[in-house]
């Protein structure tokens, strides 16, 4: 079974600054997909960014970017120019078929 | 299409009672998933359907749990003889076959509290 590890239970960032969330995963597959999901308090989980393992180029979506290191099985998320609306729990997730496996999450707090 | 809908949003029940949750996926999605999320944790896979067929069930899904998707559209998750340990957020998600690269679309969840 694939495992996803997020080693930072909580991260705090000053508004307009940058924060990086770490994620590692364990797999024997070569073709898979990685995701970061955002879950605001009492609200729906939404997809932030995704990465296809066969692509070497790191994905970017506006202020969100990833650092994908396939050999190290590492998939970190960088949030630039943090905004108050970025405060949420962030989950790293993996799939190589139909089932998503999630990490335990990192709670991001944004200080005004 | 308004996305994935779950009903109810919140449910408080007494221990030993039965509860049923409903999920309406995105209409063109033929895959539907149920996950359970306890406080401060990531979602854990419970079961998934492709059209009306239930293709996998996690060992987390005890015999008190049953899920159906009778016509390949909406799904229900029933918990019989609820226990306090069943208190959690139950998330439904859907995806289209062959679209795993896009991940899932999640509903807002049903928060169950067993008292």
Task: Summarize, please.
The complex is a heterodimer of chains A (112) and B (115). Chain A is an all-beta fold and 112 residues long.
Question: Secondary structure elements and their pairing?
Answer:
The complex is a heterodimer of chains A (112) and B (115).
Chain A: E1 3-5, E2 10-14, E3 19-21, E4 24-26, E5 33-39, E6 46-52, E7 60-61, E8 64-69, E9 74-79, E10 88-95, E11 101-102, E12 106-111
Chain B: E1 5-7, E2 10-13, E3 19-24, E4 31-37, E5 44-50, E6 53-57, E7 65-68, E8 75-79, E9 88-95, E10 105-106, E11 110-114
Parallel strand pairs in B: 2-11
Antiparallel strand pairs in B: 1-3, 3-8, 4-5, 4-9, 5-6, 7-8, 9-10, 9-11
Keywords:
heterodimer; A: 112 residues; mainly beta; 52% strand; B: 115 residues; 7-stranded mixed beta sheet; 4-stranded antiparallel beta sheet; 11 strands; 49% strand
């Amino acid at each position: 079974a694939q495992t996803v590890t997020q080693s930072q239970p909580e991260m705090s960032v000053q508004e307009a600054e940058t924060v990086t969330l770490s994620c590692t995963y364990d797999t024997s597959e070569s073709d898979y997909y990685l995701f970061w999901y955002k879950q605001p308090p009492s609200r729906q989980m939404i997809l932030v960014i995704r990465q296809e393992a066969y692509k070497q180029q790191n994905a970017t979506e506006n202020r969100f970017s990833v650092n994908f290191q396939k050999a190290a099985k590492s998939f970190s998320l960088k949030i630039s120019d943090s905004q108050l609306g970025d405060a949420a729990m962030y989950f790293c997730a993996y799939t190589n078929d139909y089932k998503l496996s999630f990490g335990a999450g990192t709670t991001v707090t944004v200080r005004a | 299409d308004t996305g994935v809908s779950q009903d109810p949003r919140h449910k408080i029940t007494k221990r030993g009672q039965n509860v049923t949750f409903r999920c309406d996926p995105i209409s063109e999605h033929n895959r539907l998933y149920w996950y359970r999320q306890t406080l401060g944790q990531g979602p854990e896979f419970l079961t998934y359907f492709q059209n009306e067929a239930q293709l996998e069930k996690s060992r987390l899904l005890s015999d008190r749990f049953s899920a159906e998707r009778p016509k390949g559209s909406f799904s229900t998750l029933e918990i019989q003889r609820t226990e306090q340990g069943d208190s959690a957020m139950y998330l439904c998600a859907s995806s289209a076959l062959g679209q795993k690269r896009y991940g899932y679309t999640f509903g807002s969840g049903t928060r169950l509290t067993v008292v």
